[in-house]
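User: two proteins, same treatment. go.

Assistant:
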Amino acid sequence: MIVLGLDTCLDACSAAVIDGETVLAARSEPMARGHQERLAPLVRELMIEAGLAFDRLDRVGVTVGPGSFTGLRVGVAFAKGL
């Protein structure tokens, strides 16, 4: 099962693509603000690095706290959009 995991709750914008227990690609960039601008390009780069198209994803996971409301909203909205 291929899963895209997202974390925008705290002071980093992070994402990873895993297949079972194997990490195919992962990135984390420290930032206090600007998650909404960076998340989509970061995930696109991650998917390219993993060598996968978005339709290959079986699941999308996103952290839901603790963290700022805006950070939570960014991650959940992006996941829902996918």
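Protein 2:
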Amino acid sequence: MALDSLELARAIVDVMVEKQAEDIVVLDLREVSILTDYFVIANATSERQGQALLQGIRGEIKEAHTVTPLHVEGEPASGWVLMDYGSVVVHLFAPEMRRYYDLEGFWRNSRVVLRLI
């Protein structure tokens, strides 16, 4: 059975928690954008952790749910990785890049579904 977009977002959050991502936020964009249903945003405190998150999300979601990202942009070394799963877009940030781009501020009219600090 295929995952709905919220179930996919929650499965991604589970991997993030396992890999010790920080400040995880799920934004519901369905009322404010046609781009995607949810953003899952998290901090990686080092390049190494960013790589572990990227590989962990990609591998564990594929293994458990046979879902792979449509597109991945960026590298952990750049401070921002975007993983596009269609209905869910994952943003892995270095903390300073997250503050700079301020996606939560830009999408402030969206509903916060989950916040784990």
